[in-house]
Each structure stands twice: as C-alpha cells, then as structure tokens.
Amino acid sequence: MTLMAFGPVAFEVYPLNPQTTDRATEAGFVEKQVIGRRPPLEFVGDGPEEFNISARLFPAKFGGMSSLAVLDAIRASGVPHILIRGDGVPLGWFCLVQVREKSTYLDPAGVGQIIDVDVSMKRADAPGAQGYVAALMRLL
C-alpha cells in the first residue's frame, strides 16, 4: 500500500514507512509605505512551500536501503519530481533539499537495525518533459 510517492520512490507501509508529514506554505506580500497609517500589504503571489516526510526503515527485516540511494540521487540531480499522496492527489513538483538519516542498533556491519529518515523538499515549477525523462533514466 503506497502512502506517498515522490518521483520513483514509494513511501509504503514497508520498507520505507512514513511516520509523519508536515507542510508549510507562505503568501508573498509587499509593504507600501504611507504616512499616518499602517503600511498596506499588496499580495504578489505564492511564497515558498516546504514539505517534509519522516519515515522509518527496518533494513534487516524489510530491506529498503536502495530507496535511500535513490533519494540521494534525486537530491544530487537537482531535478524537481512530482509528489503524490496515497489517495492519488498530486501535491505538486518539489526539489529534494535534504535527506537526513539516523541509524540505531547497529549490526556487526555497521548498518542500523532501525533507520529514521527525514526528507525535506521545496516546491518548484514542473521541469520540461525532456529534462524530467532524462533525469528518471539516470536514476533507474
């Protein structure tokens, strides 16, 4: 069962299990200086939007280390990818800004038995079709 998908990466019940999400949006305003009153605000459009996913991996039981590698490749590519909620609602195009991993209960090979993953994204415009297809092919 897919709970969320970011480009080619599926956040599912396992192996990459999302625990929480949070979203922050802003509106852009410009202040106009006037005498004797509070500066009126002029709306100039949408401001920045951020989306974060906190997930957990249990690599010894369910695998999922390859998902971390794909997320890192997406981040390094700088190409926006579509974020889709599990019910099929597209949330928009986002660039992956940061992937943070915290491993606990390390096994003899140094791999965590539990890996907490925080994924931070910022809203972006959709890429051109050719650029997006080329980026996907590099990831796969």
From TrEMBL:
Highest taxon, organism lineage: Bacteria
Protein name (database record): Phage protein U
Pfam families: Phage_P2_GpU
Lineage: Bacteria, Pseudomonadati, Pseudomonadota, Alphaproteobacteria, Hyphomicrobiales
